Amino acid sequence: MKLEGKKIIQLVSDDFEDLELWYPVLRCREEGATVHIVGEKANEEYIGKYGVPIVSDMAFDEVDAEKYDAILVPGGWSPDKLRRYEDVLQMVRILNEQNKPIGQICHAGWVLISAKILDGKTVTSTPGIKDDMENAGATWVNEPVVVDGNLVSSRRPPDLPDYMREFIKVTSEK
Predict the structure, then answer these.
(1) Is 90 exceeded by the pLDDT of residue 1?
(2) Which PROSITE patterns match (predicted)?
(3) C-alpha angle 116/120/122, rounded to 5°?
(4) What is the bridge-based pairing of β-strands 122-123 and 53-55?
(5) Is residue 16 in a domain?
(6) Is residue 1 in some structural domain?
(7) 3-state secondary structure at position 34
(8) CATH assignment at residue 127
């Protein structure tokens, strides 16, 4: 189990891309990680774009990011909501400053843009936010997965196996 003893934050808000949230959660748990679902409120049900629900374990303001080994940001329309919370941006900044893995897929790059951590990084995302990523100072490439230091980025659901292979590898090495 490659992630035994690791603690990972999985951010959530309504309209997450169902596979882009659930697949990483399940893969990390299969590898032995403890994954906490973190939303605006604890014990709140959030609904994905395709109707699959998930219940949060904790609220944004309850999380001590320094006690975590990595963070996952889902895609869908959720990132546009998540980036409006200073607690979310602070979690991402803290993990970035500590060089801990940050996984982002599809539209999740919006959260990293708002956290102002992409300048000089090479990333991928859904092509729909390519300009946003580049305007934030990143070099955007059209690849299934890109690893640049602690950042692991991916484009869309068909890339999930590549994304999680690299996220698990980077997280296990930290």
Answers:
(1) yes
(2) PEPTIDASE_C56_PFPI
(3) 100
(4) unpaired
(5) yes
(6) no
(7) strand
(8) 3.40.50.880
Q: Is 107 a catalytic residue?
A: yes
Split into its structural domains, the chain has a count of 1
pLDDT digits (tens, 9 = 90+) for 148-173: 999 999 999 999 999 999 999 999 99
Query: pLDDT tens for residues 22-54?
Result: 999 999 999 999 999 999 999 999 999 999 999
The two three-digit tokens of residue 146, written as one number: 């890109």
Distance of CA 100 to the CA centre of its chain: 12
Establish how many alpha carbons lie within 13 A of residue 74's alpha carbon, considering only the half-sphere containing its beta carbon.
30
Q: Which of 107, 121, 155, 156 is catalytic?
A: 107
- The amino acid at residue 43 is N
Q: Which domain holds residue 18?
A: 7-173
pTM over 0.85: yes
Q: Which amino acid is at 75?
A: G
Q: Which residues contact 99 (CB under 8 A, 6 or more apart)?
A: 149, 150, 174
